[in-house]
Amino acid sequence: MKHLAASIGALAAGALAMYYLDPQLGRQRRTLLADLVMSGLRNEPAGGPRLQARLARQQRPDPQADADLRAEIQSRLGRMVSHPRAIEVRVENGIVRLSGTVLASEREGLLLQVQQMPGVRRLVNAMAARDSLAGRDDEGVVAPASA
Fold first, then answer.
1. Going by DSSP bridges, is the β-strand pair 95-103/87-92 parallel, antiparallel, or unpaired?
2. Does residue 120 contact residue 96 with C-beta atoms inside 8 Å?
3. How far apart are CA 139 and CA 147, in angstroms?
4. DSSP secondary structure string, the chain?
5. What is the rounded CA–CA span in Å between residue 30 and residue 41?
6. Which fold, 63-130?
7. Which long-range contacts (CB under 8 A, 24 or more apart) does 67-70 make?
8. Residue ranges of the BON domain (predicted)?
9. Pseudo-torsion of CA 61, 32, 124, 65, nearest 10°?
10. Whole-prediction pTM value?
């Protein structure tokens, strides 16, 4: 029984270490934990003013990061779908909105690949899916009928 408890304790300690030593988010998690502990030691309500100020700074929009993410998504669209210019990409504070027209067979793969890109906090799908884009040019606009 002691061996089982020791194994579970070691497993929990390892998971906790992985959570707080994560190369991407570990520093942020450690800082938030330190703020929570310090607010408890000072008898402040959890999420005191210092913690709330830090959270507000983290959620501040970064227009350059959004522009970079938009450019990265647009540059990859040509490898993800057959009609990349039929899709409009908007990014605001890491929230990506895709609109326009896409082939139904390509939609799920596109959404999955964009969702997995670094910097994408959330993905909004506003695209119309069609079985065929026949009669449309690369811009997604219906081509005029020939006379």
1. antiparallel
2. yes
3. 22
4. -HHHHHHHHHHHHHHHHHHHS-TTTHHHHHHHHHHHHHHHHTTPPSS-HHHHHHHHHHTS--HHHHHHHHHHHHHHHHHH-S-GGGEEEEEETTEEEEEEEEEHHHHHHHHHHHHTSTT--EEEEEEEEES--TTB-TTSPBPPPP-
5. 16
6. Histidine-containing Protein; Chain: A; (3.30.1340)
7. 67/91, 68/119, 69/94, 69/96, 69/117, 69/119, 69/120, 70/96
8. 65-131
9. 40
10. 0.52
Q: For the chain, which residues make up each domain, given as ranges? A: 2-58, 63-130
- Tokens 């009669």, residue? 135
Q: Return the structure tokens found at 131.
A: 């079985």
Tell me the C-alpha distance between 88 and 140, whole Å.
Answer: 10
Residue of 86, 80, 128 lying closest to 106 (CA atoms): 80
